[in-house]
Amino acid sequence: MSTERLLDEDIWSDDSEEEEDNRWRDSRLRIVKRETEVDANQTLLPNGMVNISSVNVTNSSNVRFGPTIVNVTHSENTETVRGFPHSLVFVFKITTTTERISIYFVLLLFTFCISIGIYYNIVVATSYENLDPSPHEWNITRKMWMARDVNNSKPVMMEPLRPVVIQHSVTHECHTFIQCAAAMLEIQKTFITNEHQDTPYNFFIGNDGRVYEGRGWGLQGSHSDQFDPCAVSIGFIGDYREEIKGYTAVSDKQLDTTLKLLQYGVDVGHLHPDYVVFGAKDYKSSASPGSNLYNAIQKWDHYDHKHQYSNLICEQIQFLKNKDELQNGTLEWYVTRNMWGAEPFGGFDSALEYEPLRLVFIQNTGIDGCWDFDACSLTLRTLQASYNHEGENLPYNFIIGKDGRVYESRGWHTDGGRSGPYGLCSISIGFFGEYSNSEYDAHVKTAQINKLGLILEDGVRQGHVDPTYVVVTARDMLAENSPGVSLYNAIQNLQHYSLKYQNMTCDKIYSSHENT
Q1: Which of 131, 206, 487, 507 has a CA that sits 20 to 30 A from residue 349's CA?
Q2: Is 35 helix (H, G, I), strand (E, B) or coil?
Q3: Which helix (H) or strand (E) holds 31?
Q4: 413: closest CA among 354, 356, 351?
Q5: 367 and 302 inside one domain
Q6: Which one, of 340, 399, 397, 338, lies nearest residue 369 by Cα?
Q7: Sheet containing 68-75: order of strands
Q8: Quick one: 298 and 349 in the same domain?
Q9: Where is the composition biased (Acidic residues) (predicted)?
Q10: Which of these three, 94, 125, 150, is where a domain ends?
Q11: Closest listed residue to residue 277, CA positions, set 296, 253, 257, 250
């Protein structure tokens, strides 16, 4: 049998202290009396402690249990003491102050984390998906994406430009203005830190279908030594290699925006109406712009399907008048006077009376060879300045560099100036270098011999050279030591090499040919 302690309306409110003590004693006596009626099997609490299982109190909030006044309220059978649930009061009784502070901190941290999670997963995510506060529908300037000022870009060679080079950034995708602006800032930061220069491309295409201005119009990119001075470079944000897992797939919106950008370039004069598009992989060993994007740009009308431009240099493209000049492929290896920066000079002796020419005169220049366009162009300008100082012009009709290109010197229709009495009936071709054993690299390059054949074929096609032309050297006709041994041996192996015109004048060469 349970023991229930009832304090029947023992409400101590505002009585005097003495009356309150008397009531306490009377109450205690009643409790002790009731304890004697407890079942014998029930164990009493030690030290006279009283176990109160329930207390019913009406019309009072402050009740005195022994020497302590306790605030008690009753609500749906749940007791609260001093405003705390009974379960928490129990926790407070069995824990120390330090433990309670730790519990407070854990509960606070848990609540904070839940709130942050809700905010970013619901509020922020919804904002990114539904709110894209772009400052322009499709054309985002540097100011709009808050680009840093970097003033180390060079101006392009000459506008309007023809080549448009497409690449990809190999970075994470971005599908909103906020994401793409952040991506642009990260790309710029990387290049400033590692390369000490601005973003590599003139323009970027975001996955949101917008154009993000990189270096912009009129400035060189830094994506290719070959085309930096004369091309517009466009980088698509993402990695479009279908060979990798999770590759970026180009969207119609991105492609349409790119074509809109290119048309704008044509309209304002930055791009030539006959501009040509190709990928980075078309002119160098690269996977860019990725197979997915590469397949897409090949469907454009302006794509260079014949790969006529990818082997050219900017100087050749700069002076290209129209696409018809590319049909015979000569611009891949032929460099005009304008291209290498020749100064104008007149007074050439005409060779028109002997065209088509039957004699091809080969020599070496006697100066160091050159291995690329810039070096060969500089050598030609220096050599021309030296001859002009003496009142003469640069000799030879054409000069072949060790880079495998033919450089126009005096060109067709003129005396080459180095063939002696054969100047009016021969084409004079010089090879950069000495081709002697003392030269660092005396070997003749296969590309040089091939280009000799190409320039002669072009001369035959244009009517400047007779199809039955004969190749000779200054060593054969003028008793000179030119060309050097290695070049001389190479010339002797040519199909058109012959000494049948040796010791003959121009008139005899042509009269003998008429008699045969």
Answers
A1: 487
A2: helix
A3: helix 17-35
A4: 351
A5: no
A6: 399
A7: 62-65, 68-75, 78-81, 84-85
A8: no
A9: 9-20
A10: 94
A11: 296
Query: Mean pLDDT of residues grouped by 10 in the chain (516 residues)?
Result: 41 51 54 45 50 59 59 50 53 65 81 78 51 81 94 86 96 96 96 92 98 96 88 98 96 98 97 95 94 98 89 77 56 84 74 84 87 88 86 90 92 88 92 78 87 94 94 93 93 96 91 66
Tokens of 484: 């050097």
Query: Measured between alpha carbons, how far is 377 from 372 in angstroms, rounded to an integer?
Result: 9
User: Which of 291, 323, 355 marks a domain boundary?
Assistant: 323
Question: Which range of residues forms the domain containing residue 305?
Answer: 139-323
Cβ atoms of residues 304 and 277 within 8 Å? yes
Q: Which residue has the tokens 């054949």?
A: 453
Structure tokens of 197?
Answer: 């220069």
pLDDT at 282: 93
221 and 253 housed in the same domain = yes
Q: What is the pLDDT of residue 351?
A: 59
- pTM value is 0.57
- Cα distance between residue 351 and residue 355, in whole Å: 7
Joined together, the tokens standing for residue 130 give: 């539904």
Instruction: Judge whether 55 and 62 are in contact, CB under 8 Å.
Output: no
CB neighbour burial string for 471-494, b if at least 16 within 10 angstroms, e if fewer: bbbbbbbbeeebbbebbbebbeee
Q: What are phi and psi of 264, to 5 degrees?
A: -60, -40
Whether 303 and 355 map to the same domain: the answer is no
Tokens of 114: 């839940």
